[in-house]
Amino acid sequence: MAQPELYDAYGVTATQAVTRALHRIRTQDHRLHSFITLSDSALDEARKLDAEGPHNRALFGLPLGVKDLTDTAGLRTTYGSTIYRDHVPQHDDILVARAKAAGAVIVGKTNTPEFGFGALCANALCPSTANPYDLSLSSGGSSGGSAAAVAAGFVPAAIGSDFGGSVRTPAGFCGVVGFRPTPGMLPAPTRRLAWDTLATAGILAQTVADAKRLFDVLAGPDQRDPVSLQPMPRTGAALSRLAVSRDLGVAPMSMAMAAQFDAACATLRQRGDHLSAAHPDCSGAMDIFATLRAAYIHSNLSPLLRQHGNALAETVRWNIARGEGLTAAAFLQAEADRSTLYRRFITFFEKYDVLLTPAASVPPFGVNSGEVTEIDGRQLGSLIDYLAITSIVTLTGCPALSLPYWPPGAVLPIGVQMIAAPRRDQDLLDFAAALERIDNFGFRPTPLFAENFQ
Questions:
Q1: How many helices (H) and strands (E) does the chain have?
Q2: Which of 36, 264, 312, 328 has its CA 20 to 30 A from that of 248?
Q3: Kind and range of the H or E run holding 415
Q4: Is it true that the peptide bond before 142 is cis, omega within 30 degrees of 0?
Q5: Are the C-beta atoms of 438 and 268 separated by less than 8 Å?
Q6: Is residue 447 exposed (0-12), middle (13-18) or buried (19+ Cβ within 10 Å)?
Q7: What is the pLDDT of residues 79-112, one digit of tens each?
Q8: pLDDT at 9
């Protein structure tokens, strides 16, 4: 039986695949800082897999990176915080357990800002993760460690997480595929607030096929997660009714990013696609997101602030403070407004199949430049405003995927965010795979780590 594509890319045996991945990380990651912790047991696990044989395990021998917000049994999980510097979970997160059962080998934990909050993928335990195409630039946050590790060829795929754009932004910066599924597709049975659908795990991979293979293994309901879902099968219908929007009408957007997105649209038009300039009414969306985000962060993290105070990063403290004094009436009004926004998107997708936007508001910024507070000289209202192009989509529960696009003559890619109606994840993956085959779209190995792709 032929082995899966992910496995073939790395070697004949699981042991060879994992050995190669660990060697690359140990000898090259001092340039990127994409991993916080490496696994001491990965090689033993690979040897055990080889002794057992594939047994139709879809990820057999796959070296996998896991964002350091996701629990891994016996492998240090810090959440990017000095508070958890020595924390070693006793149990695997369900997604890690499913990946292992399918034959993947967790080689290490990828870098993240503390608790996943921050434009830079940096924390007090690990330097800022660099961009594999230009080491002076950032990988983006907060799944920047996962995106950079995939782009550099350390691992073919990684697990990340996405609240306001934390998979899609670094995927766009690093030129890889970043997939945020419909919330509930990837279950979270240990989530403190079980009905929360703002945050979800996500997938970073070099190709759409690799992202789909990992998604097919990880997706599926769990009774302990009340919002978990059974993936819908693909409809088989071509997604041909395409809408495009630079900014959803409200998102701050740099002139450089808007121009590069326009180039991507021109590429599609040249091949004969009809693109309609259209988007749902997103007025007030960022106020909704800011309120709900503040409420959830304050509820989840304010006990740590009371206990550890200044041990928390300034960005984390800022995020917690945003929820101080928030009333139940304000929270419920935001939920009601979110409901209205969701229904606008549902109505929109009765006319269109896919909405295309940029996956970030700015090109990659300096690896140590700090938070994004202005765009093209225009001051932003808060630290999260630059995420509007992705966080508005978060509110709707729509699946979204960032696909690399290379503007003609560019040395850095951008991400094109493609959005479909809720639960049309498989159709969206098919659509992205078709675009990936078009000139100027898709992953290109970085010259800085060329030896990993030879």
A1: 13, 15
A2: 328
A3: strand 414-419
A4: yes
A5: yes
A6: exposed
A7: 999 999 999 999 999 999 999 999 999 999 999 9
A8: 45
Q: Are 404 and 444 in contact (CB under 8 A)?
A: yes
| pLDDT above 60 (res 3) | no
Q: Left (φ > 0), alpha (ψ -120 to 50) or beta: where does 220 sit? A: left
- Asked if CATH classification 3.40.50.620 holds for the domain at 5-282+334-453, the reply, yes or no, is no
pTM tops 0.85: yes
**Over the stretch 32-49, which tens digit does the pLDDT of each residue have?**
999 999 999 999 999 999
With H, G, I as helix, E, B as strand and everything else as coil, classify residue 115: helix
For residue 138, the tally of other CB atoms under 10 A from its CB is 28
When pLDDT is cut at 50, 70 and 90, the band that residue 237 belongs to is confident
The CA distance from 277 to 315, in Å, is 36
DSSP string covering 129-198 = PEETTEEEEE--SSSHHHHHHHHTTS-SEEEEEESSSTTHHHHHHHTSEEEEPPTTSS--TT-SSTT--S
What is residue 303's three-state secondary structure?
Answer: helix
Q: pLDDT at position 72, please?
A: 98
CB 98 within 8 A of CB 218: yes
Rg (CA), the chain: 20
SS3 126: strand
